[in-house]
Design a protein that fits this description.
It is a single chain. The protein is α/β, with parallel strands linked by helices. Helices cover 29% and strands 28% of the residues. The strands form two sheets. Strands 6-7-5-4-8-9-11-10-12 form a nine-stranded mixed beta sheet. Strands 1-2-3 form a three-stranded antiparallel beta sheet, with no helix packed on it. The mean pLDDT is 93.
Length: 250
C-alpha cells in the first residue's frame, strides 16, 4: 500500500493484512476473525451455499482492499472454474484503489496479481470467465443504476456508526430493487438497526454463525433452510426505543 495518512496496514489474526482507516476510525476487517477468513466465512461461502448458477452477478459494497472480490475469485477457481462471474463494486476512496497494486495480500491471492493491477489502474478487468468493474464514486448513486440484476450483495461498508448512509432503510430499498427475487445479501453487521432496515424492506433475516468467527447476517427474499431465522419483530418489541436508520438522520 502506498504511504498515506488515511490508511495503515495491520496484520490480522489469520496472518493476512488488513488496513486501518484514520478517516473512518475503523479497520477494513475484523482483526480477530482475520481479513481473508472474514471475507470467506461471512460473505463468499454462505452466499454460494445458496446461489448455484452458471452466471452469477455480484454487488460488492464497498471494494475497499478488494478482499471480497478476490476471495470470490479464489472460491470460484477451486469450486466453479467454468462459471461466468460478474462483480460490480463501488468505492469512494480512489487513492486507496490506486495504491492496491502495492498492498501485501495473502499468498492465496498471488494468482490474481494481474487482476489487482488492472483494477487499480483501469477500474475494469475482463477475461473469458470474469468481469469486474470498480466504480470510483458514491455507492448510493451507483446502486440506483441497477434493477433486478444481482444474485448476491456483499454489504461490507464501514459500520452504521461510521458510515450510516450505507445502512439506512432507504439505502436497502435501493439495494432491494437492484437484486433479483432469489438474491441473497451478506453482511458482518448483526446490529438490530441493520436487521430492522432489512426486515422493513421485505427481507427474511438469518444468523450466519460457525466456528472461529463472530456471528454475521444473511438476508434473503426467499426462506432459507440451512440458517437460523432471526425473529426481528420479537427483537423490535423487546427494544421499542430502537429504530432503523433513515436518510433524514444521516
Amino acid at each position: 500500500m502506498a504511504k498515506s495518512d488515511k490508511h495503515i496496514a495491520v496484520l490480522s489474526d489469520d496472518g493476512s493484512y488488513t488496513a486501518y482507516s484514520t478517516e473512518y476510525e475503523e479497520h477494513y476487517h475484523s482483526t480477530k476473525d482475520g481479513a481473508l477468513h472474514e471475507s470467506l466465512v461471512k460473505h463468499v461461502v454462505p452466499a454460494f451455499s445458496v446461489v448455484h448458477k452458471d452466471e452469477v452477478f455480484i454487488l460488492d459494497i464497498c471494494y475497499g482492499l478488494g478482499f471480497n472480490t478476490l476471495a470470490t475469485l479464489l472460491y470460484y477457481q477451486e469450486h466453479r472454474p467454468k462459471a461466468k462471474l460478474y462483480i460490480y463494486s463501488p468505492e469512494l476512496d480512489e487513492v486507496l484503489v490506486r495504491s492496491l497494486e502495492n498492498f501485501t495480500y495473502p499468498k492465496e491471492f498471488d494468482l490474481f496479481k494481474e487482476i489487482v493491477i488492472c483494477l487499480s489502474k483501469e477500474g475494469v478487468y475482463e477475461d473469458e470467465h470474469i468481469y469486474i468493474e470498480v466504480f470510483l464514486g458514491d455507492a448510493r448513486e451507483y446502486v440506483r443504476k441497477f434493477e433486478n440484476k444481482f444474485d448476491i450483495v456483499y454489504q461490507d461498508a464501514f459500520s452504521p456508526s461510521a458510515n450510516p448512509a450505507l445502512w439506512t432503510q432507504e439505502y436497502f430499498s435501493d439495494v432491494k430493487k437492484a437484486m433479483k427475487e432469489e438474491g441473497i445479501l451478506t453482511t458482518y453487521s448483526i446490529a438490530l438497526q441493520t436487521r430492522m432496515a432489512l426486515h422493513e424492506n421485505g427481507f427474511h433475516v438469518y444468523l450466519n454463525e460457525g466456528e472461529n468467527f463472530r456471528g454475521a447476517t444473511l438476508a434473503s427474499f426467499k426462506k432459507l433452510n440451512n440458517f437460523k431465522l432471526v425473529d426481528v419483530e420479537h427483537k423490535m418489541r423487546c427494544n421499542p426505543s430502537v429504530v432503523s436508520l433513515r436518510d433524514a438522520q444521516v
